Amino acid sequence: MDGLLNFATVLSLLLIALVLASVRRAHIRVEYSVSWLAGAVVLLVLSRSPRLVEFVAETVGIVDPPVALMLAAGCLFLLVFFRFSVIISKLRDDNVALAQRVAILEYYLRGKRDIAS
Amino acid sequence: MSAVLILVPAFNEEGAVGRVVEEIHAAMPGTPVVVIDDCSRDGTVATALRAGAEILPLPHHLGLGGCVQAGYKLAYERGFDYVIRVDGDGQHDPNDIPRLLDALRTSGCEMVIGSRFIEGKEYTSFSRSLGIQFFRLVLRPILGREVRDPTSGFVGVNRRALEVFSKSFPLEYPEIEALVVLQRKRFRFLEVPCRIRPRTTGRSSITPVKSFYYIVHVLLGVLVNVLRLRPKP
What we know:
The complex is a heterodimer of chains A (117) and B (233). With 117 residues, chain A is mostly helical. Chain A is 89% helix and 0% strand. With 233 residues, chain B is of the alpha/beta class. In chain B, helix 5 packs parallel to helix 7 (174-184), helix 5 packs parallel to helix 8 and helix 7 (174-184) packs parallel to helix 8. The longest helix of chain B has 20 residues, at 208-227. The A-B interface holds A 92, 96, 99-100, 102-104, 106-107, 110-111 and B 34, 36, 54-60, 62, 66, 69-70, 73-74, 77, 171.
């Protein structure tokens, strides 16, 4: 199990570094980095606490603790993906409404231009 | 006299949209025609302008539902009482517009659908025919009645439906979901016979590959609309 925990530690540290670097370069906005950072920190804490992983495995009824770790990581990132689906859907709706408004304003503008000319 | 607007959603329909606009002007003299251009890459806008249409130019491609809703929003803002949607590919015969409009005015229904299946059998592709049969079965228990041509885009709406659709309209493949949206509002619809002509230029947006996605997408949209709480009376 140690090998897997070490791998999870490295992975979470890499993820934290990648997200922080992306925020610094303004590739990701701070509000959208929080989910990734929270997920990575939880994974980091779990990977450095074998007892906690065993406790989670026992509580959920999983015989093999590494499976519990992978399951926890999978659930965390599923939640992150779901949150982003909600955000993308909202952005899409806003984008459609804006595009329609721009088209309507352009329509009125053309009408005024035609009258003026 | 109530105000009528004809909306023509078009995407890369340079070859057909000019004739469609001219035919509408011939069938409905003096009625304003707005071509909603879904960011075409060809000469759709220039052709429609030459034919005497006004243009509602979308800044980027939204897909059919977003395109039609932009037209509904404009029509609602400008105070039109009735709107008839005629597709820009030339498959709808503008000579049927007066029939749709009469039905809309006299029946009191919020929506009128131009149906190709009322007066006998009309030619349609095998896959589309299967899809229509399938959605008839799905919609019957939801709407409480049969709808013969649920995928028809040749529709007319009155101001009550216009108000609803300008606020809430399906973004992709809107025809079937729009029926369920109407049903949730307890609005009524009527089908009137019309002729659907074969497409002469361009390509349908629903390719055989997209058909499966279409069915899943529309089914999900219908389900979501059915599950939404009914508005309080």
